[in-house]
From TrEMBL:
Ranges where the record places region Disordered: 230-259
Keyword field contains Ribosomal protein: yes
PANTHER family: 30S RIBOSOMAL PROTEIN S2 PROKARYOTIC AND ORGANELLAR (PTHR12534), SMALL RIBOSOMAL SUBUNIT PROTEIN US2M (PTHR12534:SF0)
Key words, A-Z: Ribonucleoprotein, Ribosomal protein
Name of the protein this chain belongs to: Small ribosomal subunit protein uS2
Family to which the UniProt record says this protein belongs: Belongs to the universal ribosomal protein uS2 family.
GO biological process: translation
SUPFAM superfamilies from the UniProt entry: Ribosomal protein S2 (SSF52313)
Length: 278
């Protein structure tokens, strides 16, 4: 059974393309006709492509891998954030940080910096700092959270990228292509589909259009996650799951409280110095 249908896509306005003079010839196979100078997308092909993409995303979710959603255009931000959170997937809705995929270790360092600042907050180090120092660190934490907070749980490169408007997010698409990461994308008539592995021809400017397509894809991913959970429960019931060996003890000796406070104070000073240099 199809995950969406012609009428649903039609009501959402998925069929509206761009002006004829702005079209990309590579999108010709997905264009049904021209009307009043605007290209109309063939929704029968959109339905087929949504099903194809949804099935692939379901398998990725079922295998326990991550899909990174990318949408920095205003009308798609909120929808993408909500849908990605519903399936516990990372997302980027602010400016795409250049090198996020090709220079992933550096991005992870910035994410770890957020965790370090949080630790300073919880262990009482803030009480030994001046108001100015606390304010500087707090500002740095807020800045990092705005751009990287939504990918804090992404500890390794994603297995796929889901992009809204491949033309606007061309840097993200190029990075994924360079690393061989599959790209799923909602592609409008003015965009180039050649760099997208799973093309979903549709209007990428209307919030309703994006929402309908994401509904179908995220529903499939949710199915994959539930199947994975069910299989895990069955394996544990059958006694096939590996026995818990307990937590490994740390090889390093615990630091004295005074030493730990000194280290935390040094870290706080480093954050303040870095903020001033920036």
């Amino acid at each position: 059974m199809s995950r969406t249908n012609f009428d649903t896509l039609l009501e959402a306005g998925c069929h509206f393309g761009h002006l004829k003079r702005k079209w990309n010839p590579a999108m010709a196979p997905y264009i049904f006709m021209e009307r009043n100078g605007i290209h109309i997308i063939d929704l029968h092909k959109t339905v087929a492509k949504v099903d194809e993409a949804a099935e692939a995303l379901k398998q990725i979710a079922k295998s326990g891998k991550k899909v990174l959603f990318v949408a920095t255009k205003k009308q798609a931000k909120q929808v993408v954030a909500e849908k990605a959170q519903s399936v516990n997937m990372p997302y980027v809705i602010e400016r795409w940080p250049g090198g996020m995929l090709t220079n992933f270790p550096t991005i992870r360092k910035a994410v770890k910096k957020m965790a370090t600042i949080d630790k300073l907050t919880n262990d009482g180090t803030y009480s030994n700092l001046s108001k100015r120092e606390v304010l500087q660190i707090s500002r740095q934490r807020a800045k990092l959270d705005k751009t990287l907070g939504s990918i804090a749980d992404l500890t390794r490169l994603p297995s796929a990228l889901f992009v809204i408007d491949v033309m606007k997010e061309n840097i993200a698409v190029r990075e994924a292509n360079r690393l061989g990461i599959p790209v799923f994308g909602i592609v409008d008539t003015n965009s180039d589909p050649t760099n997208v592995d799973f093309v979903i021809p549709a209007n990428d400017d209307a919030t309703k259009s994006v929402e309908v397509i994401l509904d179908a894809c995220c529903a499939a991913m949710q199915e994959g996650l539930e199947e994975r959970k069910a299989e895990k429960i069955d394996m544990e019931a059958a006694g096939e799951a590996p026995a818990n060996k307990g937590k490994k003890k740390s090889a390093k000796a615990r630091l004295d409280k005074s030493d730990e406070e000194a280290i935390n104070a040094a870290k706080a000073a480093a954050f303040i110095k870095e903020d001033e240099e920036a």
